[in-house]
Amino acid sequence: MLERLNQAMDHIEDRLDHEIDAAELARIAVTSEYHFRRLFSALAGMPLSVYVRRRRLTVAGAEVLAGQRTLLDIATHYGYGSGEAFARAFRAMHGVGPGEARRDGAALHSQPRMSFRLIVEGSGSMRYRIVEKEEFRVVGRKARIPLVHEGLNSAIVDFVRSIAPETLTRLEELSDQEPRGIVAVTDNLDESRAEGTELDYYHAVVTGEGALAGDGGGLDTLTVPAGAWAVFEVSGEFPRAIQDLWRDVFTQWFPSNPYRSRPGPEILRTRPSEDGRQGDAELWIPVEAAAV
User: Which of 63, 69, 141, 245 could be joined to 234 by an S-S link, Cβ 3.0–4.6 Å?
Assistant: First the structure.
């Protein structure tokens, strides 16, 4: 998998002066575009589109300083429709406009070319299982909240605290299959998964009963198609253990196993200690067999 990802990175370098199609990159990596974008973001720490833009502006910056072509020629060569659009993007990355950089020989920022390799840290193993589930429903309360990569998400904390105890009791009665009990469900994330982008968050249960979301109880329902799920287990400090687990799933487990992520919600079942600092958790990720 990593070899194929690096072939896709070579393709990016070969086409910095052309349109770069994410679907073509996914084909080179022998995976789906959905999985390629998610895996790239996890491995690179930035969305694919940001990396491509920064690489283009790095190479364009060297040409600006070289002074062998006009600024407009450089702008059009790298796909910018006008000198003004190029100047805005150039300034956003380098902190100066291209004209100023050429005139004054300014110091520019550089986005290094990336390649991927798997580094095994420690001797721990990841506990997981693959579960096939029929169509089911997520039923509960939903809010649109910002994504937070590290630490507590205050928007989620405030939202959960706003749910009435009687609603939580009613939800627990609707839970009739794995993962049992009240769970945290995230869906409809921005493909970049950048910090601060918004997602749908459900404080809910999993049920197959088509539970009563429209009976005046103020509940929201998400129907989830049948499919396979990779279920990962973790114990440790909250929320860090969960956030580290999600990172390790995409940076270590997927590159080493014959599966890829597929569209669908992610489900987190937690069982915290009394003080809330430690606990056990299960992370459910929708998966499918990877192409060979």
Answer: 245
The whole-model pTM stands at: 0.78
In angstroms, rounded to a whole number, what is the distance separating the alpha carbons of residues 274 and 288?
36
- 126: closest CA among 288, 39, 259, 245? 245
Q: For residues 141 and 91, what is the distance between their CA atoms, to the nearest angstrom?
A: 43
Which residue's structure tokens are 């084909």? 27
Q: How far apart, in Å, do the first and last CA atoms of the chain sit?
A: 10
User: What is the DSSP secondary-structure string of the chain?
Assistant: -HHHHHHHHHHHHHTTTS---HHHHHHHTTS-HHHHHHHHHHHHSS-HHHHHHHHHHHHHHHHHHHTSS-HHHHHHHTT-SSHHHHHHHHHHHHSS-HHHHHHHT------PPP-------SS---EEEEEEE-SEEEEEEEEEEE--SSS--HHHHHHHHTS-HHHHHHHHHH--SSSPSSEEEEES--TT--TT-EEEEEEEEEESS---SSSSS--EEEEE-SEEEEEEEEEEETTHHHHHHHHHIIIIIHHHSSEEE-SS-EEEEEEE-TTSSEEEEEEEEEEEEPP-
Listed residue (237, 227, 238, 236) closest to 284, CA to CA: 227
Query: Both tokens of residue 219?
Result: 């509940």
The amino acid at residue 189 is: L
Residues 6+ apart with CB under 8 A from 58: 108, 109, 110, 111
CA 168 to the chain's CA centroid: 29
From the first residue on, what is the mean pLDDT of each consecutive set of 10 residues in the chain (292 residues)? 89 94 95 91 87 95 93 95 94 94 88 79 70 95 89 89 93 93 92 81 88 61 96 88 86 86 94 84 94 64
Give the phi and the psi of residue 140 in degrees, each rounded to 5. 175, -145
